[in-house]
Amino acid sequence: MAAPKKGRSASAQSRPGRSLVLILIAMVALTGGMFLSGHHTPRLGIDLAGGTSITLKAKNEPGQKNAVNKTNMNTAVGIIERRVNGLGVSEAEVQTQGTDNIIVNIPKGSNEKQARQQVGTTAQLYFRPVLTLAAGEPAPDPSASPSASSSGDKATSSESPSGKPSDSASPSTSATTQGRAVTGALKADASPTPGASDSPPATPSSDPAAEAASAKLEQEFTALDCTDAAARAKAGEGVKPTDPTVACGKNSQGQWQKYILGPAEVEGTDVKGAKAVFDTQGAAGWKVTMTFTGKGSDKFAKITGALAAKQSPQNQFAIVLDREVVSDPYVNQALTGGNAEISGSFDQQSAQDLANMLSYGALPLSFEEQSVTTVTAALGGEQLHAGLIAGAIGLGLVIIYLVVYYRGLSLIAIASLLVSAALTYVLMALLGPTIGFALNLPAVCGAIVAIGITADSFIVFFERIRDEIREGRTLRPAVERAWPRARRTILVSDFVSFLAAAVLFVVTVGKVQGFAFTLGLTTLLDVVVVFLFTKPLMTLLARKKFFASGHPWSGLDPRRLGAKPPLRRTRTAAPAAPADPKEA
């Protein structure tokens, strides 16, 4: 029974090529994914690439207590992210810090002044009637035939912002609606409520100034390109809530479309609360429920009563957050009672997002600017250059030590370091677009510290092998006997390093998390490289004469290591063959 076990063990030890092929396939696959993604370099953080870092501190509005909580802060982060994206800023970071601070990091190339104005102000939420709706691109050809909307209604309007039929060259391009309807949650009245005719204006205006303003608004609408981030950011800029405006928004298919909207009829502060709920009794699926204040309930009943008597898209109202339409449900009846539901084409995430936006209009929070730090691209480049120099010096010192002390074994260590460095680089390049990882200066420090951790694993393995040779064993059995003991030590050491990195990542915020993340990532890669590359490569080289014979430059010379001659002679001596076969 013992002989087959030894045979299987020897067979398993004689196939280190499998591990080397496996890690080679992984490296090729990851490198191919990096080139296919189009991100060939790691994404740099603001301290390396340059940009602006804004710290906002949340505070309770007068008369409100305990408003600064996790839910409200997360909602505020989502709104600020929308604002930053509306500026056309790519790869911006918005995150909470502590319990009452929000950090906004905007990369270089952005308008710092405009960004500070956007992120530091309270969100503006309004309900406006939809007057005209069209596809998001400019419409140079007014004679283009309209396409059918998803709901079967033509998504164009024959009413101008002033309330009269428009005979100007307004675009006839159509757009699809979001397919969402507003119904009363508690009480609905099919007839318009008294006073509903006050909004939107329905009487033709003979005021030349009003006609000129209407014509100007239609020109802005015709020229508006909602597919352009800069144009979206400027749409409706400086317009008062009491005036009609143009705006952009996305439909349920994720396509941009543009609107002419009437004066605001309901404000965000009129919304008492909103939440996403799942309809367990009907087939509506996810929906958003709204509760209005007493004053807001009257306003909402008035506007829904007026819209219910109109045709699509003028029976819709737009929920406008920071001048962008986040939803445009249609109304079939006047809604009274202070409650309403928005249903249709929702999944859980989209329903929750809309509920958060509606709630934000009533959030008892405001923000004050605590600090603004500007990092120039030149300074960021200097920091990155200094970090790379420090890393190169550290790596050079490690290599010099390995070459002087381990000689030939240093080739295995250097090859392992190169493999670890390649895997780290490729993963960092891939993690940028996938999870938003940004390589900042603390993360570079974490990578430099990882050089020592990785080299330490090689040293543990090499010293175990040398200990076995000192005991008088030859190289091949020494490698296999040293590996189990070295493996345990390496795993315990890397586990402690990874645990420290994980704890640091959880309990810290901001840039320190970059250090912890990089340290944890490189620690995991150290385990992969040692198991799938260093040990198999050592097994292969142990069969080569240069290492197996204990060449003085191999780093495994028994005489230099002080091997025990008696044990070595005992293991290498062969018994004399008997002269007579019968004696055997």
- Overall number of domains: 3
Beta-strand percentage?
15-25%
Report how far the terminal alpha carbons are from each other.
24 Å
What is the CATH-assigned architecture of the largest domain?
A: Up-down Bundle
- How would you write the strand order of the largest sheet? 4-8-7-13-12
The CATH class of the largest domain is: Mainly Alpha
The tally of strands reads: 17
Uncertain ranges: 1-12, 142-176, 185-205, 566-573
Biggest sheet, in brief? 5 strands, mixed, barrel
Give the number of helices.
17
Query: What is the CATH superfamily of the largest domain?
Result: Multidrug efflux transporter AcrB transmembrane domain
Structural class: alpha+beta
Supply Rg. 35 Å
Describe the structure.
- With 584 residues, this protein is an alpha+beta fold.
- The chain has 17 helices and 17 strands.
- Helix content is 48%, strand content 17%.
- The protein has a five-stranded mixed barrel with strand order 4-8-7-13-12.
- The longest helix has 33 residues.
- Strand 2 and strand 3 form a beta hairpin.
- It has three domains: 225 residues, Multidrug efflux transporter AcrB transmembrane domain (Multidrug efflux transporter AcrB transmembrane fold, Up-down Bundle); 75 residues, Alpha-Beta Plaits (2-Layer Sandwich), CATH 3.30.70.3400; 220 residues, no CATH class.
- It is elongated.
